[in-house]
Design a protein that fits this description.
Strand content: 15-25%
Order of helices and strands: HHHHHHHEEEEHEEEEEHHHHHH
Structural class: alpha+beta
Shape: globular
Strand order of the largest sheet: 3-2-1-4-5-9-8-7-6
Number of helices: 14
Helix content: 25-40%
Amino acid sequence: MGKSTHFIGQPVLEQLIKCIGKEKILKISRAKDGERYVKSFDAWQHLVVMLYAVIMRFDSLREIAAATEAESRKLSHLGITSLPRRSTLSDANMRRPNEVFEEIYRSLYEDNKHILSSDSSSHKLPGWMKHLQIIDSTTISLFSNLIFKGVGRNPKMGKKKGGLKCHTVIHANEGVPCDVCFTSAATHDHFMLVPNHFNRGDLLALDRAYIDYGKFEELTECGVMYVTKMKKSLVYETVSSVYHMNMDGKMVWREEVVVFTKKERNGRNITHKARIITYADKEKKKLIRLLSNNLELPYEEIIEIYRKRWAIELLFKQMKQNFPLRYFYGESANAIKIQVWVTLIANLLLTLLQRSVKRSWSFSGLATMVRIMLMYYINIQSLLEHPEKDWEKSVCELTKSPFEPYLFD
């Protein structure tokens, strides 16, 4: 049998990272003091090795060193001039600023926004879709409470684990983070609601952990709309209440206009006027109450905006299932942040690959295929478009070959 029909002279990993650019990476690293006192293991090699480890889901530095040694003959194609040892990678994770990898992610995102956006797709999207931003956070459990403080009560036996909280903002029509901020797990979510970070006309889909009347009023004054879920304990004054019934006399939805009052420490009272939409969720078989500062948008669109919030939950699930975020390659805060930023870069690269392929692939299926073929000399885009092509070729060759009689016929 001859070569694969998908053969190409570059390993799959090189095809993934070709859109980043070595010179650009080194320029970013020099600007962030990432190349100071570096002899050979520069930011480009650091990024490539970390991407290799994250995509392959390695759990330790020992696995990374062993795997790169086994693939040593292919490393020159990736611009790696020497085998990365455990101590070399450990020192790089501790010393090179994580801001280098943050800037690499932001640069890669800005360069590919036009590909990520689904505005040009054939599906007709609502007018508010391109303005919708989803904000949420996810907590990554750590081994020590000394690095990032955890949240919740201390356990009766043993020490409490630490936690890194990733505060994330995504555009609903892109599906990848456009802004990320790291804090300890003990930090409250609502600090992300900074009016200066948003433009007039933006829509925010939030979890109920972000409820803060003062910040909601600031957002309203800046022309930013939000939709979130109600808490049962909220105290408010009802201005008006209207029930909308169907022909059978059952409630379809209820609309309330309410006023919240918050007393600040300086004695000043903040009032915030909002709208509560109550509707019956047939799937969950319960009443859902949504809070919004938009008093004019139809209730169906308010409900649909909040349902779009689920996209960020799917993103968190996707990242935790397909990348190693339970085991870390270093014990410092800088090393942990570097690994999370590289995970975000890997997620973005695979998302771009998924968008460029016409054939429909789930993210997990595509990530598995890339993981298997990562150091193969295979055109990954061709393979994803037609993975059965080699098999069909081999079957065709077998059916055309002449019959060979057995020796003892």
